[in-house]
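Exercise 7.
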Amino acid sequence: MSLTFESKITDARGILFDLDNTLYPSERGVFDRINDRIDSYVMSLTGLDLDGVKRLRRSYIERHGTTLGGLMAHHGVLPAEFLEFVHDIPLDDLLYPDKVLRDMLSRIELPKVVFTNASAGHAERVMETLTIDDQFDGICALEATGYRGKPHREAYLTAVGMLGCPVTGTILIDDLDVNVKAGTELGMMTVYI
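Solution. The predicted structure, written as tokens, is:
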């Protein structure tokens, strides 16, 4: 007997929301600017040209889940320094208070946690700019996961622990297929944006 989506959704006990390109549209360009700053950081660190940086980043993401994971493992990069640099972007040009999103979130009566591969500071700034910071019960950012972000199993378990519900009672909403697949494999209900 298979469960329908409707019957599974009634079993939900908490929701994990990805941040960038999920709580706001990718067209706003926030993550594009972050990506540019990551490229700039890696270029400065390694001396590679942009094509070399893109190849290196792809390999680090495949092997370590994030560019930062690869930089820490292979270059001894301090995560706080990296995260501060790459998230130092002006948000006021790109994001604004989102009443529709705020109203939608306020109607969800389940615990909600932002689950991001960004820094807690970046998540807080985005949530404040969107005026949704009071709609969440917590932020599971890279600092909380020991800098092992999605799609690492440990990151998901840390985030679910912040919700205080079982993995099978968790909904994950994310814009990256690899992250959604990892959540599904753990037994979460998943939504791909």
